[in-house]
Design goal:
By secondary structure, this protein is an alpha/beta fold. The protein has 2 domains: 166 residues, Rossmann fold (3-Layer(aba) Sandwich); 120 residues. It is 37% helix and 15% strand. The protein has 12 helices and 9 strands. The strands form 2 sheets. Strands 3-2-1-7-8-9 form a 6-stranded parallel beta sheet, sandwiched between helices. β2, α8 and β3 form a beta-alpha-beta unit. α6 crosses α9 and α7 runs parallel beside α12. The longest helix is centred in the N-terminal third of the chain and has 17 residues. The radius of gyration is 20 Å and the shape is globular.
Length: 292
């Protein structure tokens, strides 16, 4: 493995030129893109601002807090507290924010290009920025949806009004009103956030674009294709990271642009077909956009 140390502005110029000349643009979006817009799950100041009660208990990040309320832990003893966290979290991440600037800049970069997006994010930012949902493959779920916890069907339910009601009627900073606990309209089991965490995940709504995604990739073999990878780590590397590297290796005219604030690497097998920029993603996208 070889760490890229090429000059930042040279990489910005090269990235802009690659995107300008690309016949197809495949975009991979990970949690780092949302974090660069200010919604960072590891940011202690954000955890303190949104969840001071948990912060005082010693939980210094949203990730730490979430670990106590993961979607398989709901039961009659903790259901009002489970939703006390999740209602606020879904509101803060999915409904309260407008489109973040990195996403708006990404939309400007992609506009006019033949693009497709694969995303592991569940926060709705791509749609808020204006991207066409039919051109997004997002297999991990959506904070805007609930599903049956069994599940008894492949149905999902929009939760905007439910979340708003939970927030409005909270009996304490930690608990919702028991009357607002959501139950499946078909079987009466708990409803849950529609997130991929185990084999109960309802994935049907999220894999409907998978064939379109595969066709986009297959049809790009002879094209100048740029793979723009944004804030993708190693939590689920088989969804974006590894496939993007494989495409870069196998496709003769492919170019990988990997942008991540974290220390990262580029395989020596594709080093000559790749650009790695270690910097805040929002800054990088803004700088690339200015060069287009």
């Amino acid at each position: 493995m070889k760490l890229s140390t090429t000059d930042y502005w040279d990489n910005i110029k090269k990235s802009a030129e690659c995107i300008t000349n690309a016949e197809k643009l495949l975009i991979g979006v990970g949690a780092g893109l949302t974090a660069s817009g200010g919604l960072n799950y590891t940011d202690a100041s954000l955890a303190e601002k949104w969840y001071p009660e948990y912060f005082e208990q010693g939980k210094k990040s949203i990730i730490e807090i979430m670990s106590d309320f993961w979607v398989t832990t709901i039961n009659k003893e903790n259901d009002v507290f489970f939703w006390g966290f999740w209602a606020r979290h879904i509101w803060h991440i999915r409904y309260e924010p407008q489109a973040l600037k990195p996403y708006l800049d990404l939309f400007s970069i992609a506009s006019g290009k033949d693009y497709f997006i694969c995303s592991t994010n569940v926060d709705g930012q791509l749609e808020k920025a204006g991207f066409d949902k039919s051109l997004i493959f997002a297999p991990q779920g959506d904070y805007a949806l609930f599903q049956c916890s069994k599940p008894c069907s492949q149905d999902v339910y929009n939760n905007n009004e439910i979340i708003e009601t939970m927030i409005k009627n909270m009996v304490s900073p930690l608990a919702i009103c028991s009357d607002d606990i959501p139950y499946c309209p078909k079987c009466g089991s708990y409803l849950m956030p529609n997130l991929r965490c185990d084999d109960t995940f309802v994935e049907t709504p999220h894999i409907k674009n998978v064939d379109t995604y595969k066709t986009f990739i297959q049809n790009a073999f002879e094209n100048k294709i740029v793979l723009l990878e944004l804030g993708v780590g190693f939590n689920t590397p088989v969804i974006i990271r590894y496939p993007f590297e494989a495409i870069t290796l196998q496709y003769p005219n492919a170019k990988l642009i990997r942008i991540n604030i974290a220390n990262d690497t580029i395989s020596e097998k594709i080093d000559n077909k790749s650009i790695f920029i270690k910097e805040d993603i929002g800054k990088v996208l803004a700088d690339i956009l200015n060069k287009l």
